[in-house]
């Protein structure tokens, strides 16, 4: 059993992002970067399936060479080896999906597990696009995964509750928050991760044009909310709603 998992380098969710003066993006210099939390859940699920069924967990990331740190974090958790597709420029969801499709052709995994979305752009598109490009069955927003030799059964969260779907392998799954709680990397795991293989590729070597189809025109800070005010009685409240807020 070979499982391919994707991880993305994102800004720490505990940090308040600051928009660049020209509005072209957010300031990342000196900011702590982490593994996208949904991807960390995907790594944990892959490791649990490996422990139960045996096999190999391969971690894939795309971005600058700094993304090696996030691959090493997944290797420290217990993944076996990593692949970094080096790209310093922007990678939108479509380019990420096409890169993943090419790596999938090379690696031929039995299962691909991805976070349902990245917390930086919240697109929630790469998994679905990849499934289409690779011609695979997909189950998104997984909250439970059960694997057999030839099939995978996924309980997924939908608006009306839970839905259970079954797919033949190979297949792609995207993870939701309630699927599991990721483990902490142990000290021996961190030491071993330093010696594990991380192979570098490029989009050009994979034959993928990563020119973004989605362009960010400008980012702006949200407008500051006005402070609330206390009123002495209902009559004053009604007067303010009618004459100042003009909602009555």
Describe the structure.
The chain has a single domain (2-243), classed as Rossmann fold (3-Layer(aba) Sandwich), CATH 3.40.50. The strands form two sheets. It has a nine-stranded mixed sheet, with helices on both faces. A two-stranded antiparallel sheet has the order 2-3. The N and C termini lie far apart (64 Å). It has helices at residues 37-53, 68-77, 93-107, 126-134, 187-193, 203-206, 234-243; strands at residues 2-6, 9-11, 33-35, 56-63, 81-86, 111-115, 137-147, 151-158, 161-168, 171-175, 198-201. With 248 residues, the chain is α/β, with parallel strands linked by helices. The chain has seven helices and eleven strands.
Helices, strands, pairings?
Elements: E1 2-6, E2 9-11, E3 33-35, H1 37-53, E4 56-63, H2 68-77, E5 81-86, H3 93-107, E6 111-115, H4 126-134, E7 137-147, E8 151-158, E9 161-168, E10 171-175, H5 187-193, E11 198-201, H6 203-206, H7 234-243
Parallel strand pairs: 1-4, 1-6, 4-5, 5-11, 6-10, 7-10
Antiparallel strand pairs: 2-3, 7-8, 8-9
Helix pairs in contact: 2-5, 3-4
């Amino acid at each position: 059993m070979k499982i391919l998992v994707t991880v993305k380098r994102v800004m720490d969710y505990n940090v308040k992002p600051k928009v660049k003066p020209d509005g072209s993006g957010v300031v990342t210099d000196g900011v702590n970067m982490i593994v996208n939390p949904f991807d960390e859940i995907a790594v944990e699920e892959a490791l649990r399936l490996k422990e139960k069924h045996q096999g190999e967990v391969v971690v894939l990331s795309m971005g600058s060479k700094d993304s090696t740190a996030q691959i090493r974090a997944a290797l420290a958790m217990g993944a076996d080896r990593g692949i970094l597709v080096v790209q310093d420029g922007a990678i939108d969801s479509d380019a990420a999906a096409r890169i993943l499709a090419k790596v999938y052709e090379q690696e031929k995994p039995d299962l691909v597990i991805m976070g349902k979305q990245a917390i930086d752009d919240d697109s929630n598109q790469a998994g679905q696009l990849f499934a289409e490009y690779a011609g695979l069955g997909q189950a998104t927003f997984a909250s439970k995964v059960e694997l057999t030799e030839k099939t995978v059964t996924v309980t997924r969260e939908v608006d009306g509750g839970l839905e259970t779907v079954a797919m033949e392998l190979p297949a792609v799954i995207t993870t939701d928050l309630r699927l599991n709680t990721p483990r902490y990397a142990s000290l021996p795991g961190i030491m071993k991760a330093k010696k594990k293989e991380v192979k570098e590729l490029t989009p050009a070597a994979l034959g993928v044009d990563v020119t973004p189809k989605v362009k960010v025109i400008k980012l702006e800070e949200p407008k500051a909310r006005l402070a609330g005010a206390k009123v002495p009685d209902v009559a004053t409240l009604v007067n303010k709603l009618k004459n100042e807020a003009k909602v009555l």
